[in-house]
Specification:
heterodimer, A: mainly alpha, 9 helices, 0% strand, B: mainly alpha, 77% helix
Chain lengths: 256, 231
Amino acid sequence: MDKNKQNRDIFKIFLHSLFIQTVWNYKSMVSVGFTFSLWAKCKHVITDKKERIAFLKRHLSFFNTHPYMASYAIGAITRLEEEHKKTGNPDLNSINKLKNALIGPLGAIGDQVFWQSLKPGVVLFGILGLLLTEQLQSRLFILVLILFIYNIPHFVIRYRGVKIGYEQGFSVYKYVKIENFKYIITGFKILGAVSFGFLLTLLLTKTNTGDLYDSVFFFIIFVLTYFLRKNTSNIYYAILIPLILSLIVGFTMVKL
Amino acid sequence: MELTDFFVIALVGALLTLDKTTLVQAFISQPIIACTVIGWLGHDIGMGIEIGMIMQFLWITNIPVGAAITPGGNGAAMIAVALAIHLNRLFPEQFNLILLLVVLYAVLLSYIGAKLRSWHRNRNVFILDRILKNVDKGDFNILGKSIFISIALNYLRFFVIIFTGLILGEIMLSNIIGAMPSVWNIYAKYTMPTLWAMGLGLGLTLYDTKDVRRYILIGIIMGIIVMRLAF
């Protein structure tokens, strides 16, 4: 196939994949967005009405994984559906099996890479940067910077996912390994941890009023929130209890 | 702020909220960015950044794993910052109390937002069923149409939530603050340090593993050096 045309197709699929969660529902999860992405290319390949109906119903049934990492599955399934239409191989059962087999690993990798490493790392780095300067222009620069730091790996992985998936077909599973993303996980975990340590010092200094009670109170809230969040799955307790406590302490300090 | 300001904030806020799950997810719906935009619209970008940082810190452990419903913190943070700017103009001497109340209000809204998202995901099943029915009839454009309709409905939903949240918040909080004696602002003096300490406590839950502890220590040392140089 003409390389330029293939790249154009991959880009088109990538753009469609940005809508993967638009019709998120409890019955088929993200299957509508997933099928919408496949359809960007497959509608030109599958022209028979009955085959089109069968294709759409097959993919609309169920799909759920990490929204960014889904691009690997989208690329691979597009390729395999195309090959199936042209040669009859691979059979539909194998395509379906691959699709289902990718759900778990893509979800697990995506959660680790993006939700547990990239996002908190960027957030903590951003907050640190914003606290280190008071100048508005510098602060706006930091906000633009964190948008870039977050979105460069985000968009690169999403685009590469479609491209690798489309080029590799069945062999995409070789690329869907946590080892291939270790450098991002490690890099952003380090960024987040260093920023966190720095923030700890910075906030202890900034909120220090010179009053020992204030510093002790700050430390108690820090530890209390940590244990509340660690031991309960309900985030609201970890937010509401310290806030109510702060009001009680404020009230008591004034009365004393 | 006038009603028209709230209207514009709701229009822009709904657009930013689409980024949370409906479209792309390019980080612009995150409080740290979205609140800055709302602050700019409310002519107090500094306040937008300050409250955006705090709200972002509070939701740092929100990880939308699988089908989990996390608190609707992004829209709530935008409402909180718009109300904080508005109330701070009305009651400039009551900032601690304003901060406490807008954060509590944002927490309440985030809870409601999570419930509404669950309802919305159930409602999307109807869209799926409609797509399947139309596909059976041979309407293959239904996918694109449904995506478009879903974006429009989501936008409308976010607009209504943000606008209603702003109006109700303005009525409730301005009356509460107006009715409270000014000493309540002193009672609430620990709100800001509490929010920062909470953010750190929440953040630590993400980094309390052996493999990253030494990097936290490096960060602490870097912080001490910078603080020493700065002061």
